[in-house]
Amino acid sequence: MNGMMTSPLAGLPIFRMNGIGNEILVLDLRRAGLEVAPAEARAIARAPGLRFDQLMVLQTPRHAGANAFMRIYNTDGSLSAACGNGTRCVAYVLGRAGEGETLTLETDAGPVRTWRAGETRFAVDMGAPRLGWREIPLAEEAPDTRNVTLAPEIQGAPAAFSAVNMGNPHAVFFVDDPLSMDLATLGPQLEHHKLFPERANISFAKIITQDEILLRVWERGTGETRACGSAACATLVAAARSGLSAREARVRLPGGELVIAWGADDHVLMTGDVELEFETALEARYFAEPES
Ligand SMILES: N[C@H](CCC[C@H](N)C(=O)O)C(=O)O
């Protein structure tokens, strides 16, 4: 049963945004009191002109003092507990509606704080990274998650990686030339590697200097994107832990640049631009077609 004849979401307003090229939709369901089913998320991902890397769905907060609870969908309908660029886009939308310059947004990985840092610049506190192998999670014990052997190995992929959980699982491969990596081939194999029981977001990073990193990302549940904020955080943490970078660096992605800072309080802050592309409404026809 894949076909949906209609959806109560039809007619609701939705914001198309991007966080340095990471394509984000923001759908505020707090007032409507509705939820999004995975099949509805996939239908929106297929909608002409709407497609997204992440769909940020806002729901009534669970705790007093928070502005919203965020459910974060990938294009395959799977959920993520963290999305840095999407969170910064949500801050833009709610800030524009007068909800404040600093917001608290709840996720399945805990609350995140986000605030305006300039005209179209927003920052988010992604919290502390989790670095134990069970917390990533990895399927097998790894005594040092800075350097995990990729076993079984995959042709064309480096032999080892760093593992970091930023609310979601990340594997960071340091390579000589991220631009030459065949992500379309390597991405799916690594995302689904048996070491990752919850799959993983896959980063290919090159250290340019102590405070500049070049990065390309294959995202769990979505594929290659022009930017991934939590991956930029995971990469900075992996680099700093291994002495490859400072604890603050600029991370350059195909869609733009983020400043990532891993503070003395262990929290990781991300700052960068967001852009509102357009506001539209969900159409009934998006939900009418059965999934092939
Ligand atoms: N683009 C997002 C992360 C999406 C992660 C998602 N693909 C997953 O963990 O399943 C970001 O800016 O942090």
Automatic annotation (TrEMBL):
Any one Pfam family match given in the protein's UniProt record, by short name: DAP_epimerase
Keywords attached to this entry: Amino-acid biosynthesis, Cytoplasm, Isomerase, Lysine biosynthesis
Compartmental location: Cytoplasm
Annotated function: Catalyzes the stereoinversion of LL-2,6-diaminopimelate (L,L-DAP) to meso-diaminopimelate (meso-DAP), a precursor of L-lysine and an essential component of the bacterial peptidoglycan.
CC per GO annotation: cytosol
Gene source species: Methylosinus sporium
Keyword DNA-binding set for record: no
Similarity comment: Belongs to the diaminopimelate epimerase family.
Top-level taxonomy: Bacteria, Pseudomonadati, Pseudomonadota, Alphaproteobacteria, Hyphomicrobiales
A GO BP entry: lysine biosynthetic process via diaminopimelate
EC number: 5.1.1.7
Gene that this polypeptide is encoded by: dapF
Broad class of where this protein is predominantly found: cytoplasm
Sites marked Could be important to modulate the pK values of the two catalytic cysteine residues: H170, E219
Record-annotated active site: C83 (proton donor), C83, C228 (proton acceptor)
Protein name: Diaminopimelate epimerase
InterPro entries per the UniProt record, alphabetical: DAP_epimerase_AS, DAP_epimerase_DapF
Annotated metabolic or biological route of this protein: Amino-acid biosynthesis; L-lysine biosynthesis via DAP pathway; DL-2,6-diaminopimelate from LL-2,6-diaminopimelate: step 1/1
Entry binding sites for substrate: N22, Q54, N74, G84, N85, N168, N201, E219, R220, G229, S230
